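Lecture 7 notes: from sequence to structure.

We start with a single chain of 438 residues. Read the sequence below before looking at the structure.
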Amino acid sequence: MLFQRGLVKLLFATETFAMGVNMPARTVVFDSIRKHDGSALRNLLPGEYIQMAGRAGRRGLDTTGTVILLCKGDVPETSELHQMMLGRPTKLESKFRLTYSMILNLLRVEQLRVEDMMKRSFAELDLQRDAQQAASQRQELEQKIRDFQESVFPMCDDIEKYYQVASELNDLKHSLRLKIMNSANAAKVLSTGRIVVINNKEHKNALAVVLQLSTSRGRLASMSETSKTYSVLVLCEGKPNTSTSVERTTSGKSEAVPSTPAVLTGRTPLFHPEGPSGHMVVDVKPIEISVISCHSLRVNATHIIDDYRKRQQPRFRDDLPGREASIATQELLRLVEANPDGLEAVDPVKELNIRDIDFVEKFRRTQFLEQSLDTFQCVHSPHFIEAFEQTRTKQKMLESLNRLKFLLSDESLQLLPEYRDRVQVCVCVCVCVCVWVC
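Now the structure, written as tokens:
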């Protein structure tokens, strides 16, 4: 009361004073930015600093508040102050836990289910907040599905089965590619001169040769993390001035939904320039390398990169590409013409020595699915593309509908598996007790 009335001019307090109490002050002074949390001495967290520093400035009395940090010893590092003042606040986590006594008591109450109690917990706040919007989207999607007009195409009775196999094949290839690129032997294979196939927003199924491996650091939020990229010379369309394209780093994001059966199954022909061939030197992420081929070229990576960078300068833009770059480009073009449907990829099990059981099973499953694609009757239909696109549109709507139904059901509750396990334990205990009594 004395502090609120302004009778106390100076108050020494712990951080508890700033928690949930409306006691603003003109100036807040930090004796130190370090505290002992019960186990170790550490700097103040962003949330703790903001909670206490936010008391500076009285509403209606002060235009600004003043925060002072006492430096009794060494001045804190700029990075430490930046993290404390502008860092990400501590994420709130729900402490709601299901206990056996709570479950048994709720099971005795007919008006309230255990699932309803879980929905009211803080852990399900985000899900329940979006429940009304999800319900509206579900109704709109159900109406679209009812209004969807399907055409009947000859020789396409098995198109839905084909789409399911192609979708599974696409998912398997994506997961296998992630596993391959994260393996230690893949980094050894992706050495200078290795021929690869690039797939990103700028280059679709384009042949390239690896020049060098480079690492780039992330932003301040992840200064300790490094991302691995490969500098490659990629085959592209020739232009009047082939060196006008600047070197860049691609985003690495794949297309949200493949739109053709060839892209979905990975059977897209290699990119072939329509006119004179050209080249670009770009940085790609490992996930953008769709195929590691068995072919290699002897290239001088340093000469190619230096020559390309030189031709980015305005005074050298009209210069012809160097000999090393021209030879590499012609070799890539020759491989495309000799293998238009794609190059043979390295065997991840035999050559990369990936012996993980789950990986091997997925790899064998991928080979089986690729062989089964040619057995479908729909691939011989003249209306195959139209039928596939129609099936794809319908299946995407059904997948979205199933996802919304899952989000609105009790199955999406985070604590539901734990609840079922505890109920099963209670049932087993009850059975054991009954057997023992009998």
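The chain has 14 helices and nine strands. Keep this in mind for problem set 3.
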